[in-house]
Structure formats: C-alpha cells, structure tokens
Amino acid sequence: MRTKTTTLSSLALAGLFGLVGCDLDVPDLNNPGLDELSENPTPSGVSAACTGLLIGNRAGIAAANGYVAQLGILGREAYNFDAADPRFVGELLAGELQPGSPFGGNFWGAPYANIRMAEIVLDAVDRVAEFDGEPASAIKGFVHTSKALALLEVINTRDTIGAVIDTDTEGVDDLGAIASKEEVFDEIAALLDDGADELAAGGDAFPFPFSGGYAGFDTPASFLTFNRAIRARVAAYMEDYDTVLSALDESFLDDSATGDLSAGVFHSYSTGAGDTTNGLTNPNIYAHPSVVEDAEADDARVAAKVVQVSEEEAGGAQGLTSDLKFTMYTSPAAPVPIIRNEELILLRAEAEWAQGDLALAIADLNIVRAAAGLPDLAAGSNAMEVEDDILYERRYSLLFEGGHRWIDLRRFDRLDELPLDQAGFVINVRYPLPSAECDGRPGEAACSEGSLGD
After folding, report:
1. DSSP letters for 143-169
2. Of 165, 164, 153, 167, which Cα lies nearest the Cα of 123?
C-alpha cells in the first residue's frame, strides 16, 4: 500500500485512532477496527478516523525533540541543554544530521502515517451512504487539507532532497519514487486546491468534532479560510506570489484596526488521560542569545516571548550558555500555532515586495510593527532593505512557533547569516532521508545526500 517507512504498520496506524485528546471523544479502535474501516466503513469509523487525523497532524510538533524545538535550534532561535542527550548540540549544531538518529531521521514516519490514514478515509467515505453529498465533500476537503499539512512537514525538513508523493503503491516493498522538491510542492498545492473546492461544497457542518484549537474554524466554510491561509504560505514557499495574494483574499486575514494578530488555528494539548502535553515547557529549552541581541529596542514581541532569568536559573552545555527562557508556552496544555493572522499580513507584505509594490509592503509591515510598539519604517526603502525588514518582522512575530526562521533564511538563500557559536559548528540546511527509508532503496541517489547541502 505504501513505502516501507511511510506505512509503518497497521498496528501503528491504528494507534492514531486510540488516542484520546484535545477534549475529543475518540473511540478506542484497535487493529480489527482499522480493518473494518478499510473493508466495511461506518459513519462512526470514518468520523473517528478524521479525529485521528487531527491528532496525527500534531504528532511530534511540540515534543522537546519535536518540530518546533529542532527547527528552532537549527535556526538559532533556541538551545536544548539536556545533559542526558548531547546530540541537541553535537548533531543539531556541531555536526551533520544523522539519518539513523531520532534527530536527523525525524519528521518522516509520523507524517506519512497520517498521509496513509488520510488515504484510507478518502477510500472509505464514498462507501458510507450516510455521508453522500455535502458531508462527504466536507470530509474530503478536511482530509485533503490534512494530507497537505503532513506532506508540508516532510518537504520543509527534506527540502531539495525531495519526498515521496506516489504513496498509493501495491505493497510495502513497492516503493514510490523520491519526487523533486518542486513536484512535492505542486502536489501540496493541488491537495489544498482540491480541498478548497470540496469544502466550498461541504454544507454547514462537519460530521465529527474538532479540538479547541480550531475554534472558529470548525465548519466547512470557516475551515476553508484556514485551507486558503496554508495555501498562501505554500505559494510563498513556491515563489508564486500571485497565488499568495489570491489565497489571502479567501483566507481569514484581518488587517482592520480591531483585527487580532494572534487569531488563528492551533494545535491543542492537555494533561487529560491519554492526551499529549506540550513538551516545549521542557526546562532544558532556552532561547538563543541572538534573539535579544539582534532585536530593535523596545520590541514588545521580545518582552512578550522571552525573559532573562537569574544566574542560578541559567543553563548551559558543551560550552554554550543562555540566561533567556521562552515564556510563550506556560503550561503542558499551552496551544501551539499552526497559522495566525499575523503571518498572513506578513505573507501579503512579502508578496507585495516580490511584485515591486514596496510602499504596500511597508504599510503591511507597519501594521505588525505598530502592534509590537515599534515606529513605522521609513518610506522610500529599496527592495533589499524591505527584504531585510520582512525577515526581521517574521523572525520576531513567528519566533519559536514552527521553524520559520530556519525555513525563511533557507528560502531567501541567507542561511549563512545564522551565528556559529563555536569554531567547527555547522549550518544544517535540510534533513537526510531516514535510514529505515533508505534500507528499502539500495543505491538510491537521494540517500547519499546529507544535511549540509551541496
């Protein structure tokens, strides 16, 4: 059915169903339940699987060794001074990412497990008579969006190495080809566009519950604005700025005087039985000193997100030290943003800059700066100066939310601006293909491509 590493096993996939979290009531379906969904789908089985997709999309995002933390370290937003695992420094900062480790081999199996679950749901929903018409369309729109999010996690980490998009193969030994970065982004864009059409025909309600992080985005019409927001982000990564602007027009962007920059969609966590907590509260996580050193004076985002701690509370490892702690995730139940209104305004500024409308770009940047207590940017800046401004505002608006700093500097070809804290440290530009994937691909050229780039 899929590549060896993307399918995992039926039992592992079924485990997504068994998760109970985010105030979602999910039945405890075991392996026979998964078989039932494939062979004899029911409304309750499909609905539970959709809830499983929500849970699967947040898998590993907020772990201490997860997506936000690892990409934050690579982008010099954060450190993890865990004395029990020197790889937080030795592999992420001082060496090449290793395909067989839980660092370099990360962010592959879990997203592909969710992609596989999405395909099972898509196959099942058309065989459930109760979901004929609008409910089926709503489910398909949600599932295609979820699948796009999972694939985006994979390509954000693998970048020019590429990823598998032909995942509907006949057996675990029938491996889909490694597609190029461009082909993967085309697939993500198509999934989101298909999802948008389906959501538009999806009626008034979804036939399954959402977590609290989707409050205000839990109907087909409102979820469509989330889909379009993600589409705008993807279009920016593709340098397709006409689509950035058209997608933003259909998103939840609000640049009004009363618009809430923090409004958006979030991954939810809780301390409830069987649920997942936010691991970014880990006491070993510190902010990189450059976060404060590089900030403009009186930037309220820094004061809101980072605090200096006492000498006794400062941390260190392998010659690195920091007395700065993040204050963004205050409890194990703290939500983590997927996308917020603030990013949408910054995406519009980037599109305007790319199209030569520097005055409009500056006006949008000034919306964000005003909220941060900063003065307006000077009019008449040239394109390079506005590019600098875009990267600055994105750095502090999206600080430690989802690897944005690392991804942004890579796509603007400016990763060499990241600080190297010690002699011999390196800049990892992408993740390698995991060893488990390459075990099934002897001689595959992509498996020889490392994390340091060309």
Report:
1. HHHHHHHHHHHHHHHHGGG-EE-----
2. 167
